[in-house]
Design brief:
14 helices, mainly alpha
């Protein structure tokens, strides 16, 4: 399969993630962030385990739980903290720093070269997200800012190590392992620190099904498939598609206004994502060297 096709398939994941805000605010009960994260991750992971009929071997359990924590448990928890303590635009802008963080981490972990155009594309994308989402009343709460940056860093590290520790299994199997591990990590925190959920309505159940089956099982399968095939810097740039989708859905579904500045921000984001794919494309020899290092690491 060609690289452009892999990019388009991977881009479907953050595009669908852009619906998370709409579904969460319009279809789910408020005040249960960890519980809802468990219900999003654990049932989806267990379902995929049944489908794939594969459990991680004992020697990989440590890595699977580290990745489950980075990509799900820590990331989603910090994401909710940032969302509660910051305006949505500020939280999303901080989250878009992930692409810059991935470029730096991939250099140290995978030996991926840092290219000036890739850094410029990532910085431009952050600017575009800011134009798309930030308003004049944006406030900076220190804890919220720390959570937003921490969440971006957690997902960035998880993305790079998902590439480095890619086991010789199907991407769907790798997704099942990580989702289940993330849900298991979050479960005791939900039971200890949050009250029981109220009786769920049909709308609540539909929202959970969407976030679990589509927003977790399907999208993270596409995402980890892309992580295994595309350079980490290029994959992380695709994450900026999420706020664009969120704004478009708010405009179409909720009737929210779309200002000229927001439209310009969306164009800048899409342009930076496109440039980021070109900038992060490695030479054939460099790509083979990185792939060989990853293979040696997996066999070690």
């Amino acid at each position: 399969m060609t690289r452009p096709t892999d990019i388009l398939i991977t881009a479907m994941a953050p595009t669908i993630w852009g619906s998370t805000y709409l579904v969460t605010t319009e279809a789910l009960p408020t005040g249960y962030p960890v519980t809802l994260a468990v219900l999003r991750a654990l049932p989806a992971g267990l379902l995929l385990l049944v489908v794939t009929r594969s459990l991680p071997p004992r020697e990989l359990l440590g890595r699977v739980f580290v990745l489950g924590a980075l990509n799900f448990a820590i990331f989603w928890t910090l994401l909710f903290v940032a969302a509660y303590r910051l305006p949505g635009g500020v939280a999303a802008t901080l989250g878009s720093l992930q692409a810059l963080i991935v470029i730096g981490i991939a250099r140290g972990i995978l030996g991926t070269p840092i290219r000036a155009l890739a850094v410029l594309a990532a910085m431009t994308g952050v600017t575009g997200v800011a134009l798309l989402l930030l308003g004049p009343d944006a406030a900076l709460d220190p804890i919220g800012v720390a959570a937003g940056i921490g969440g971006a860093a957690s997902m960035a590290v998880g993305t790079v190590f998902s590439r480095k520790w890619q086991p010789p299994v199907h991407a769907l199997t790798f997704t099942a392992w990580q989702l289940t591990a993330g849900g298991v990590i979050l479960l005791p925190f939900a039971l200890l620190f949050e009250p029981p959920l109220p009786a769920l309505t049909i709308t609540n159940i539909a929202g959970l099904i969407w976030l679990g089956l589509i927003g977790a099982a399907l999208t993270y399968w596409l995402w980890f498939r892309g992580v295994a095939r595309i350079e980490p810097g290029a994959v992380s740039m695709l994450g900026m598609m999420s706020p664009v989708t969120a704004v478009v859905l708010g405009w179409l579904w909720l009737g929210q206004a779309l200002s000229p500045m927001q439209a310009a921000g969306a164009v800048i984001v899409l342009g930076s994502v496109w440039i980021g794919q070109f900038a992060n494309r490695p030479r054939a020899d460099a790509f083979l060297a990185v792939t060989a290092r990853s293979a040696r690491s997996n066999s070690a």
